[in-house]
């Protein structure tokens, strides 16, 4: 079934798609947003760990809609649900933790700054930090970010303070500040995409125990589904279609897109003609959609003459550790039992080292918070895994000692994850989803510097935990990637030979196709990617609106 | 829970004895359509009807016993008291999570068969040490066995520490055991601004 043509169709309603819809509809441009997932009501968002974290509420089951993943080209490829962000209106912003940090000026000029790094395809961005700064400020205002500027010497240049003060914090924050001072580090309040005051008709955070991995029923979390899409809908120019999964972008003989083929919630294939197509389905799924859109003009996938679509996949480099602080029978530690859910401290002392250490110069951010308080997951943490996992009487005792009688403070590290020729997305030659379409295959080839970066951050984080007097510490991830923070499969640049998109995130080879999610990122910075994706999407949306209004 | 009448008890015992004899001497004979149960099996499955029909009575009895070994009753409630079997009976009735039910049934049926082979008794009536020995062999067994044991653990934790609305975690006593307070909390940290000067807006770059 075919629809009447519209100006723009956007694939995806998360951090990459919603700001574009916001800009276009406010400029009076008729826009359709196709969202694979369903629309949720506030009442759907409870804090039920089984439903939200252990079933397919947000992310599909691997037996229905898998990704496949392998480590190295010769590695065994297996089904996984990693690499999906949540499949609902608002995308990953619905259940994010909302660590909203900006990238730093150095991230836009990494090739120039570091020179050639062997084994890595580092490239400068075609825009500078100053070009994106106004859009960072814009994103912080529209989505609602709480934080405080001028609190540490490594802060990126900012034109304005955050629109809201930081969230309230647990007394652990004071302790981290004191230890940081002793060690010569500079902890600062973590900026969050969570309202600390009532903001534009949304309620302030009520400090419930379970935040990240859950939706927010009082709309304090700045999900695009409560911050941007309602505004776009109020213009009357947005047609949001949930449960509609784009399967192909159609092009004419010259390579111009004519519209998007999608499967609606009844499983019926439909076609939405449009003047412009914007793809924002996450770096992995956008690459899959482009690679699946084969035509006479583009036999290897839309805009993929260079073979670069899906290449240079990057994530946020991840390390994870936690320390155990026993308070049972320790009156001096009674303050630890305070139930405040956030510690709210981060450090960027090692964002960029002054001089390279063992080849490593660009590192990243350390972010402290309580180990996620999910009760089932905490039982699994205390129990351990495999042949040594505790159960029975020993487990009960450990639960009393390490869960009820202690606080578990952890940190995550967000490090530069270098683009390599070994990390990419392609179509799996064998595995199909439940509708028979080839799934995205993720191949991971980490750069050796990623391990060094994570190791350095983890060591510094452990120094803080030990300085706080942890009874024991445990490093759980030393060398990994946050697969919900993904980018790089359609990097932007000025040279069509080495990039897929131009500086406006328009495809070099198809003049009316844009990609506005994390795919554009040539490098991953040293912070969580969400705010940068939002900011860039505001930039893309504003420029596209101007172009369309002119022409 | 209804107690068996004396007559039922006698009948079951008699049938059970018959099954036992048949079991020993009947090798090679055609299987009877409904296997007769032993007195131990009767004792083990007494009152263990799975309300949603997810498990057979024997599987449900094994599930009670096995989950209770993962989280045994002591000064805090055990898996049975926390409603783990009832939770799983309800939760696993959903066919979309058959990938969790399958490995669970493998370990329940497997443990029951091992108990019968080794001790000629149902798993549920074995001594706790005997039950632990069988479960330990799964925990340290082949990858498939280990996976089944992990699923048993994970599902036991879901029943013990999940949201009580699913039928487990009776009265939130699992939350209490793990030191978790559900719902919003009123943070009593003083507002950041009043506390220390690091949060006063001051340009540290100058």
The number of helical runs of chain B is 9
Helix content of chain B: 40-55%
Query: What is the helix fraction of residues of chain A, given as a range?
Result: 10-25%
Per DSSP E runs of 2 or more residues, the count of β-strands of chain A stands at 19
Instruction: Give me the CATH superfamily of chain A.
Output: FAD/NAD(P)-binding domain
Portion in strands of chain B = under 5%
Domains of chain B (count): 2
> Beta-strand percentage of chain A?
15-25%
Please outline what is shown here.
The complex is a heterodimer of chains A (551) and B (206). Chain A is of the alpha/beta class and 551 residues long.
Q: In words, what does this structure look like?
A:
By secondary structure, chain A is an alpha/beta fold. Chain A has one domain: 3-Layer(bba) Sandwich (FAD/NAD(P)-binding domain). Helices cover 23% and strands 23% of the residues of chain A. In chain A, strands 1, 2, 6, 7, 8, 9 and 19 form a 7-stranded mixed beta sheet that branches. A 6-stranded antiparallel beta sheet of chain A has the order 5-11-14-15-10-18. Chain A has a 4-stranded mixed beta sheet with strand order 4-3-17-16. In chain A, α4 packs across α12 (530-550). The longest helix of chain A has 21 residues, at 530-550. The relative contact order of chain B is 0.11. Residues 1-32 and 190-206 of chain B have low confidence and may be disordered. Chain B folds into 2 domains: 1-36; 42-172, no CATH class. Chain B has helices at residues 6-25, 39-45, 57-70, 84-91, 98-119, 128-139, 143-161, 173-178, 192-195. With 206 residues, chain B is an all-alpha fold. At the A-B interface, α2, α5, β5, α9 and α10 of A face α6, α7, α8 and α9 of B.
